[in-house]
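Hi P.,

Sorry for the delay on this. The queue was packed all week, but I finally got your sequence through. Input first:
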Amino acid sequence: MNLLCISASNIAHQSSENSTSYRICQIATDKFSANCNGEKSRIIELRHKVIQPCVGCGKCYESHRCVQSDDFNDIYDEIVCTDILLIVSPHYAPIPAKLAALLEKMEQITFLHWCKDNAWRSEVFGKPVGIISHGGGGARALKSYKRMVNDTIANALDTIQLKPVSLNSKWDTGISIPVKKAVFNKGSVFPSQEYDWELIADTVSNYLEAVREVFGR
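Then the structure:
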């Protein structure tokens, strides 16, 4: 069983260790590797990739790949080959631009074939996907993050024929991570965000178990 974790943050100036999305991915891959024997886990950071928006040229119909973006093709190949996909996304407007571009390209590849043959199955059909969102707000903001981030991503995944994994009936499109405290510092336009990383590790671990169960069915 293999896990591919996508860190969807756009922030280019941070080190990986200071990226919340990357740190959540790291927790997930560490937990996954600790519970598996010989399986592989890998993190892709979209902020280092060049993924142009889909222009609707239709050339992906024959090749099932994009003629505009080699980075997209490399990521899509990895998604095709992995057993489990995990997407960790911050709340932007509502999701990061490169993640939106990644999803729309996969969606186009699937849609062009499905609209001609409703029985057609994509290369990623039924593959389980976990969705973890986060933002600058506390626990009260989680409902809005679910609606704007998790649900948005899950709707796209449904069209792509991937399978979003729920945690429970309330969190049916993944989970969301709150900040413990946000403090504005002098000299910076961004708040300094503090997280309860021990609680996050437990939350991610529980959700990963739900994702693994879906894969095993």
